[in-house]
Amino acid sequence: MAGPDDMLISEYFIHYLQEKRQDSNWRKPFNFNHRIKINDSVIAVIYAIDSSETACPKDMRCIYNRLVTYNTNGKIISSDIVTTQSGDELTTLHFNHNKYTVTHYKRYWEKPYVKGDFDNYLVKTEEFGDVDFEITPAGDIEKIRKPYRD
């Protein structure tokens, strides 16, 4: 029999997910990715939620990564979906302590993208723009500059 020390962090962490707090019956695959100490009273966590179909090819997966800041009592201070991969949309994240950049891309498919239609191929990916954010010492997430290039 497994004891409390054998519990996986993901089994414990599910109770801190924003999605689980909004709906106690919520249950989807997720991955706990990173924990970043912003200061002594704020922790940032990045986790991924995967809503892909079974046996979905990697380029067609529907995934998002959420960044959440928590106080020392586990209360959510701020939250932001920082990356996505779904259909024509792709965003990536570059994180540096309390600042991060989200880069937006447009993806082009051989034929119009339909979730669940695995007989389609990614033709090209084109960068569209980026947005810079900062996590303040209080744990708030703030945009630093205008979202897209002119």
Q: Tell me the span between the first and last alpha carbons.
A: 60 Å
Order of strands across the widest beta sheet?
A: 1-2-3-4-5-6-7-8
Shape category: flat
Calculate the mean pLDDT score and round it.
Answer: 83
Q: How many domains, in number, for the residues?
A: 1
Give the number of helices.
Answer: 2
Radius of gyration (CA) equals: 17 Å
Q: Given the helix and strand composition, which structural class is it?
A: mainly beta
Q: What fraction of the residues are assigned to beta strands by DSSP?
A: over 45%
Order of helices and strands: HHEEEEEEEE
Give the helix proportion (percent range): under 10%
What is the number of beta strands? 8
Q: Identify low-pLDDT runs.
A: 1-9
Topology:
Blueprint: H1 9-13, H2 18-22, E1 30-39, E2 42-50, E3 63-71, E4 76-86, E5 89-96, E6 99-109, E7 122-135, E8 141-143
Antiparallel strand pairs: 1-2, 2-3, 3-4, 4-5, 5-6, 6-7, 7-8
